[in-house]
């Protein structure tokens, strides 16, 4: 496998587009402004209600999804994959061709997005830590949904935000991220913390503190699958998104997801490389500062854009960021697709090939060791670049729609439009910055 494959996931440069980057950025900004104007005229009352929106899924499908054998099937598949990759991590060689790296950095981190968009909260269904907790509860006669203590509401999603930051730090900043030892240690700590947390606080801990489950569940809000009580329903992704619980730490989660992806683009740019080469500080220190600045910066821009809005009698400014944070989820999904599309398609294939030989001894356990990698997407750079730009712009437009729906739900009529202007400015800043970084990567 060529050395560049694990790290080649940028846009490929402005030359791949049939029009100039300046026109793309100007067009994207115009699309947001026009979308906001149309919404202001045509969308003046709330359209989504979690308790009534959506239509029941087909009976045959609901029967399958609700069956115990279906859940057991996915949980078994997830745990078998976990054991297989764990064996490669423990007994495999410390080489870049070890499939652990591809599963960890590509299948898990990037692959969760399309899987969750299509199937819903995938990680919740296959999570090995949930399976371990379930097995432990059955052995001890306990209830896996109930812990010794009640999960503190004030913590919200903050533990998940910290876990997500720990992951992106390992991937983007830590200088030994492609060595087996650090990855094994990270995963061991993750499993240990999740196991203890599940024992103490039950399944609520996974819903709020598991970084991968929170990530997958947030993205799944953009799928067509939802719940109305215990009923499986099919409804608009925007209706699902509007039902996202506004808990503490939600802004932190989306800020880490968006900010880390933006930093991943920026640290591959010539601007950053020249800065690092000309600095007297260590690359490691600058990387830590850069990642932190991007994540915190995204959070601050969003918080500022929300707290400057008008208020109703029952609202506090400090509550607004979490109430509007769900509107960043489409932006995160669009930007992940834009930034990692070719990375997922090509390195994902490499990982599948490597999984047949987990111990790097010439084995072919899965029958995929001799498969060829398709580089079709790289051979069509204009299609690739255009797809990525569309993903970024579509994500931001959907974000504007989601924010508008929330504004007409909670803001007094006199502030429903003017109150959104600061957030619209923040969205435009995200769009311009995101496209600029994609072109510069």
UniProtKB/TrEMBL annotation:
Name assigned to this protein: Fenitrothion hydrolase
Superkingdom of origin: Bacteria
Keyword NADP tagged: no
Keywords: Membrane, Transmembrane, Transmembrane helix
Residues annotated as transmembrane: 23-43, 72-92, 104-123, 155-177, 183-206, 283-311, 323-345, 421-439
